[in-house]
Amino acid sequence: MHPTRSKLVALALFVLGTTTASAASISYQATDIADSGAGDAWQYTYFVSGHTFAEREAFSILFDVDSYANLNPTPAPVSGWEILVLEPSVGLPADGRYEPMSLADGTSANVAFTIDFVWKGTGAPGSQPFEIIQYDPDFNPTTLESGVTVPAEAVPEPSTWMLVSGAVGMFALRRRTS
Q1: How far is 11 from 174, CA to CA, in rounded Å?
Q2: Contact 91, 79 (CB under 8 A)
Q3: Helix, coil or strand: residue 33
């Protein structure tokens, strides 16, 4: 490969590696807390990134009807959020939902969102499906994105990605010019 072309390839790799994706990501931390008379008590703490919320946009996390019960959210972490909780219902059957909704454009999601629950599964609770939803003025929902929550320790910091991509770009550049 021509040296100038290899420099452009290395620069492109560096730039691609340092830009952030626009896809929303929700990471979680599951904590075993003191059990109540209702069962095996746990707490999820969620961290949202990669999405700027507009008014009437929400993230909705699903709680499987066979694995979760007694959803109990903590108060909204900061002003500007309204939290809706729908309990899993065995009678319907229907999954539960934890759904913080932004009350204004640009509301910060750079805070921890927390909910306590009873875990009916085996082992420790894990990943859950989520959706980013936009409600119109009549509160009809449109799904903008969907995904699965990931353990907080599995999400690398953006600086890690920048360091790795920069090192790869510099290595490629140096290798090609030698």
Answers
A1: 12
A2: no
A3: coil
The region, left, alpha or beta by phi > 0 then psi within -120 to 50, assigned to residue 56 is: left
84 has which bridge partners? 99
Q: Are strands 81-86 and 96-102 parallel, antiparallel or unpaired?
A: antiparallel
C-beta atoms surrounding 161 within 10 Å: 15
| Residue 35: both structure tokens together | 């059990």
**Token pair belonging to 118:** 């009873």
- This prediction has a pTM of 0.72
Bridge partners of residue 50, in order along the sequence: none
Tens of pLDDT along 70-128?
A: 999 987 666 789 999 999 998 888 999 999 999 999 987 888 999 999 999 999 999 99
- Residue entry with tokens 């452009």: 8
Radius of gyration of the chain (CA): 21
Name the one residue in this structure whose structure tokens are 């694995």.
67
Task: Give the integer Cα–Cα distance in Å for 139 and 99.
Answer: 14
Structure tokens, 28: 């979680």
User: 99 is written with which tokens?
Assistant: 């759904």
- Dihedral, CA atoms, 61, 66, 42, 49, nearest 10 degrees? -20
Question: Rounded to an integer, what distance in angstroms lies between the CA atom of residue 32 and that of residue 40?
Answer: 8
